[in-house]
Design goal:
Shape: globular
Order of helices and strands: EEEEEHEEEEHEHH
Largest sheet: 6 strands, mixed
Number of helices: 4
Helix content: 10-25%
Number of strands: 10
């Protein structure tokens, strides 16, 4: 590593060096998450009990809120309010790249309606401009956050035999045409073309 370049080692064996374009990561054996916090049972469905679930897409979301993955996981751990949809995702990643698993990958998270049964949902804590009002500049994803999102996507692709492409690495609005979140996650600054390329690069080793 060049002198002066910062590196941080994350759990699961992945090493993140420098800026996003120059990251060197290794797909670990275990899912590279930092914490496990189970979502409330009303927010997910049990998957197959005798076989691995069939997964065909990795669906990326933006939370459209603040940057703390713990706060999102805490919200999902509670039953939804009467006026709230019972939603969550398998994984959520904070601005600091902290990754939390909330639903087992072989279970079905409620994140993209018709795509739920055959997808993994990954939430990125990021926000589009104007979400909190006219003066809100938004909160784009960070380099280390995107790197973790790609690493998680690559791990899931390897586990489920998914060939990464722009038809298998998709955004919420693409996987769920009926959603009211029509800019999710691209309006918050998530580049899905880059994500698909990065997942493919990681899998290529």
């Amino acid at each position: 590593m060049p002198k002066g370049q910062r590196s941080r080692v994350l759990r699961g064996g992945d090493v993140l060096d420098g800026d996003a374009a120059g990251l060197r990561q290794v797909i670990p054996r275990r899912l590279p998450v930092d914490l496990w916090q189970r979502a409330h049972p009303s927010r997910w469905r049990t998957g197959p009990t005798r076989a691995r679930r069939i997964v065909e897409q990795i669906v990326y979301h933006a939370t459209s809120g603040r940057g703390d993955a713990r706060a999102v996981a805490d919200m999902w751990s509670r039953a939804p309010d009467d006026d709230e949809d019972a939603t969550d995702a398998h994984l959520v990643i904070g601005q600091d790249a902290l990754a939390i698993q909330c639903v087992r990958c072989d279970d079905v998270a409620l994140h993209a309606h018709r795509a739920n049964a055959r997808s993994i949902g990954i939430e990125i804590c990021a926000r589009e401009p104007g979400e909190f009002g006219p003066g809100d500049p938004g909160m784009p994803p960070t380099a280390v956050q995107l790197a973790r999102a790609a690493l998680l996507g690559a791990w899931c692709c390897r586990r489920y035999g998914i060939a990464p492409s722009r038809s298998t690495i998709v955004g919420h609005a693409e996987a769920d045409p009926d959603t009211t979140h029509t800019g999710c996650p691209t309006a918050a600054g998530v580049d899905l073309d880059w994500m698909a390329r990065e997942v493919a690069r990681l899998l290529a080793g």
